[in-house]
Specification:
globular; 42 strands; alpha+beta; five-stranded antiparallel beta sheet; 700 residues; Rossmann fold; eight-stranded mixed beta sheet; Methylamine Dehydrogenase, Chain H
Length: 700
């Protein structure tokens, strides 16, 4: 870090206050112990594997990358490309052990480290390197723990053993880009319960266009490329095969031309497989049962929506009695249905079906009023009766569960607690993350006739009657909620407020968790609804908060938020006076299929909608200061989005600024977010005519 701001330094040093937090908690089938990943403390980024005894409440380090090989600890530069890209998809940048897989009793765990595979005997903490071919990725043990499947160079292998998948030019055992980034499926191979076979995805990307990335800091290095499914173009051809250890194989058969997206798959005993598939526009989602011996499939359920079937994690789900739980939206509520009969009422906005509880009820996460809160419930699938397991404002979630054990994460504006509930009582699960420096108190409200969730955050110690420039800190896109009673998302916003801004945040229509009608308002058109809602909310908040100076309004955002920031100054310069646009998808015709087509449809069928949402043709209209920021290693929103807009602005003679970030990806790892924030602050202070008006902030 080159700046000296204490908050930004602390944020970078602690991984945005995430280093030291437990992750990927896995409970043993007998609920006796847990495995999880965590570093050794709040400023240590390297994730290690730990064992936690649920009886004694003692933890023990069982695999330490720095002890295995001090020179190689899972840093991004050393990872195989498949693993590096998967980490980008799941927004994981900490070095060390990125993931692990274990036997049901957690006696054996396997993991990859810089392309090598290790098997760990968790009782002794002994890690043994396994022989592999090439650079390995995603190792998974069989149920007995004596054979490990892994991917190397796009092929599925066994150790001990050899290559399992055929050499046919396809990728085997991995999830394709669309599945990882947009559809919630991050893996591509699954062991049969008896260990005799693997269910494996076969991915043919030969029809997809390539995206290329060159590092301008190192012109001597060749460019890297990968296949990218661009809106309106071809998708990867994804098949499922049962690959048996005796060398035989069977392909699962469904209408993949009509239902190209595989969103989930897995074994339901040795004699059955379940898979979930969706059509291209995601208006039809099928749960299929497959016979691993013949490959034949049959439809168990179909979920249909005239807009799109909004993904509800955990559904569709077949219960023990054979009935199928699916999502069931009404205009006012996200619900669930059992064999087509709606179980939930309009009090709930269901966000995730966690799975069956010990007594046959279902664990679910849902909002039950204020969209800023989320709670954990038990739902009786026979009667629809609910039992609420969490209390108080905040975002409550299930981190792990098995048998009679439940690990809850409760995040409120007062902090984060991880509570382990067992029949013997409740205890805190070990968390070594840094204490959050701020306890922000955003002023939450619902504004305009649409009831938009909104917040205003003032500098600490702000004296009423002092006019403040406004910073609209925005996302605004589908799939992501910003207004929530969760502490980490307000930390950087409070820092911005302490620099002398009144920070405003609004969840416009199109964002989740208010109601299906609220979300679907953007159907076939992104820009206009978001822009209209944000402007109306800003005006409503200005009327309610006289200290907001609407003559000085800056706007900043990243990804879709970056798109909105550029959109705001291009199309509403009367409202927005300067913008910082980070990683903006300036033309959705160049973005990926699964995300873009879900909302906008195919470009060939909705050319007017795509054209209206494209920013490049607006370049001659720019009359306000605009800073464009983009990581040159961004494989989610390719840097060409920013460069095309910059080129159009240059051709139109419109001054603007560009901040390229060599080697930086979409998730701004390793302190890049904090460096960008410092640059944005300097830009906004200059362009809004703002001296360093921040009052001396209380110490961290």
């Amino acid at each position: 870090m080159t700046h000296t701001d204490p908050y930004l330094e602390l944020s970078a040093a602690t991984g945005r206050f995430g280093y030291g937090s437990p992750r990927a908690v896995t409970l043993a089938a007998d609920a006796s112990r847990a495995l999880f990943l965590r570093s050794t403390g709040p400023t240590d980024p390297v994730e290690r594997l730990w064992l936690y005894d649920l009886t004694t409440h003692q933890e023990r380090l069982v695999a330490d990358p720095s002890a295995i090989d001090p020179a190689r600890t899972g840093a991004a530069a050393a990872l195989p490309p498949l693993e590096r890209r998967l980490r980008e998809r799941i927004r994981l940048w900490a070095p060390g052990i990125g993931s692990f897989a274990a036997t049901a009793d957690l006696g054996t765990a396997v993991f990859a480290l810089d392309g090598r595979v290790f098997s760990c005997a968790t009782d002794t903490g002994t890690s043994t390197e396994l022989p592999v071919v090439g650079t390995a990725f995603d190792p998974r043990p069989n149920p007995a723990g004596d054979t490990v499947a892994y991917v190397a160079d796009g092929a599925l292998h066994l150790t001990p053993g050899g290559r399992l998948s055929p050499a046919d030019g396809a990728l085997w055992g991995v999830a394709e880009f669309a599945a990882q980034e947009e559809l919630g499926r991050t893996r591509g191979h699954w062991w049969a319960p008896d260990g005799s076979a693997l269910l494996a995805a076969r991915v043919d990307e030969s029809a997809l266009p390539l995206r290329h990335f060159a590092d301008p800091e190192h012109p001597e290095r060749p460019a890297e490329s990968f296949a990218y499914p661009q809106a309106g173009g071809p998708n990867a051809d994804v098949q499922l095969w049962v690959l048996r250890l005796d060398g035989s194989a069977t392909q699962l058969r469904w209408d993949s031309a009509e239902f190209p997206y595989l969103t989930a798959a897995g074994w339901e005993g040795d004699g059955e497989l379940l898979l979930t598939v969706a059509d291209r526009l995601q208006q039809n989602v099928l749960l299929l049962s497959a016979d691993p011996a013949t490959g034949a499939t049959r439809e168990l359920s179909r979920t249909v929506d005239e807009f799109w079937v909004d993904p509800l994690p955990g559904t569709p789900l077949r219960l023990a009695d054979g009935r199928v739980l699916t999502s069931a939206d009404t205009p006012a509520a996200r619900g669930v249905a059992l064999d087509g009969k709606i179980l939930t009422d309009e009090r709930l906005q269901v966000r995730r079906v966690v799975g069956p509880w010990r007594d046959g009820r279902l664990l679910i996460e849902a909002g039950d009023g204020d969209p800023a809160d989320q709670h954990v419930f038990l739902l009786d699938p026979h009667t629809g009766a609910l039992e609420k397991l969490t209390a108080g404002p905040g975002v409550h979630a299930v981190a792990a569960h098995t048998g009679e054990v439940l690990l809850l994460t409760s995040a409120s504006l007062d902090g984060v607690r991880r509570e382990l509930r067992t029949p013997a009582g409740s205890t805190d699960f070990p968390d070594l993350a840094a204490e959050l420096p701020y306890r922000p108190r955003p002023l939450l409200s619902r504004v305009t006739e649409h009831g938009l969730p909104a917040a205003v955050l003032y500098p600490r110690g702000h004296a009423a009657g002092r006019k403040l420039p406004v910073l609209l800190d925005v996302y605004g896109g589908p799939g992501s909620q910003v207004i929530a009673n969760e502490p980490r998302r307000w930390q950087l916003k409070q820092w911005w407020a302490d620099q002398g801004f009144a920070v405003v945040t609004v969840d416009n229509r199109g964002t989740p968790f208010v109601s299906p009608d609220f979300t679907r308002a953007i159907f076939r058109r992104f820009s206009q609804v978001a822009l209209d809602d944000q402007v109306a909310a800003l005006q409503a908040l200005g009327a309610a908060h006289p200290d907001l100076d609407l003559a000085r309004v800056g706007v900043r955002g990243w990804s879709y938020g970056g798109y909105f920031a550029a959109l705001a100054v291009l199309r509403r310069p009367d409202v927005f006076h300067a913008a910082c646009a980070g990683a903006p998808p300036t033309d959705f015709r160049l973005y990926d299929t699964a995300y873009t087509e879900r909302y906008l449809g195919l470009p060939q069928q909705n050319p007017a909608g795509y054209a209206a949402d494209c920013l490049v043709d607006d370049a001659p209209r720019l009359s306000r200061p605009l800073l464009l920021i983009h990581g040159l290693a961004d494989d989610n929103v390719h840097p060409s989005h920013t460069l095309r807009l910059s080129s159009a602005l240059t051709r139109a003679g419109r001054p603007h600024s560009v901040l390229p970030l060599p080697g930086v990806s979409h998730m701004l790892p390793d302190g890049a977010l904090e460096r960008v924030a410092a640059a944005e602050l300097a830009f906004l202070r200059e362009k809004l005519g703002l001296r360093d008006e921040s009052a001396p902030a209380p110490s961290l």
